[in-house]
Amino acid sequence: MKLITVEEHYDTDENIKQFKQYSKVKNNNPYQDKLKPNLVDFSNKVAYMDEHGIDFQVVSDAGNSAQVLPDQYAVPGAHAQNETLAEKISQYPDRFAGLATLPANVPDKAAEELEYAVTKLGLKGGIISGSINGQFLDDPKFEAIFAAADKLGTTLYLHPGVISNDQKAMLYDSKSYSKMAANMMAGAMWGWHMEAGIQVMRIITAGLLEKYPNVKLATGHWGEFIPMFMERIDGFSPIVTDLPHKFSDYYKRQVYLSPSGMFTAPQMQMVLTQMGADHIMWSEDFPYVQSGDTVRKFLEQADITDEQREAIAHGTAEKLFKL
């Protein structure tokens, strides 16, 4: 079984330096420095892939990317990240493809960078991590990014990002448990994923997928809560929107999902029922998640048909990213 994983991450020494120096968004991963060799050194990635039966990765810079730098650093920083990623991929063309870092806080430049990265560097789409300075992508100021993606017929991977301090304070801080507990709840335990699901819900409700039918969205963590609420959202959609189709019609047409290392059978079966294998891909979230042999074994042993297994393992990703 050929295995492609699609939410795998890299970084560069220069971006790490700029992030620490200029970003107002704190890195709340205490293991970031320990992870650096597996983020920066692609030979480390290949060794891990070889050891655990992973044939190919779609790699991106997420969370601590140039996206969250001040504007004067975000645009050149994203461009530098994409140039470096393309150069690294050229060293291992049979093992990696990439998604472009987009300086989404400068939407016109983000649209230009997406077109450059796809048409000149051969990258397979773009990635945006979380809200942008507390703003969601349904704001009309970001429409240039969707217009560019639609023109290219390419994919925007909507990755979680660190939520705003105000959002964290209101939803997760408490006098009844520790600051560390609040940080975890606001982050990888819950908050990142809830916000990422809200991002997708707002994009569809705002009519962006109706207006831009050639845009594809990809999300991890089994759809960031949305598949569980699909029918519930559909029930309210006629009240909140006058779009010609149901929320689920757009979602099932233009959104693609992966587990991001959440190798859990109940979620897999639910998402498979909602979406079908032709909208599901595989992912580990390396190096933030390192599940080793489980990455492959879970899918090999899953209670699904061989046809579904092949689609999830590689077929869907090959079609979506034109691999």
Automatic annotation (TrEMBL):
Asked if Ribosomal protein is a keyword of the record, the answer is no
Where's the Amidohydrolase-related domain?
Answer: 45-323
The organism encoding this protein is Secundilactobacillus silagei JCM 19001
Q: Coiled-coil ranges per the record?
A: none
Q: Does the keyword Lyase apply?
A: yes
- Entry-linked Pfam families: Amidohydro_2
Which terms does the UniProt entry file under GO BP? secondary metabolic process
Q: What is this protein called?
A: 4-oxalomesaconate hydratase
- Specify the domain of life of the species encoding this protein: Bacteria
**UniProt keyword annotations, A-Z:** Lyase
Query: GO MF terms on file?
Result: carboxy-lyase activity; hydrolase activity
- InterPro entries the record matches: ACMSD (IPR032465), Amidohydro-rel (IPR006680), Metal_Hydrolase (IPR032466)
* Annotated Gene Ontology cellular component terms: cytosol
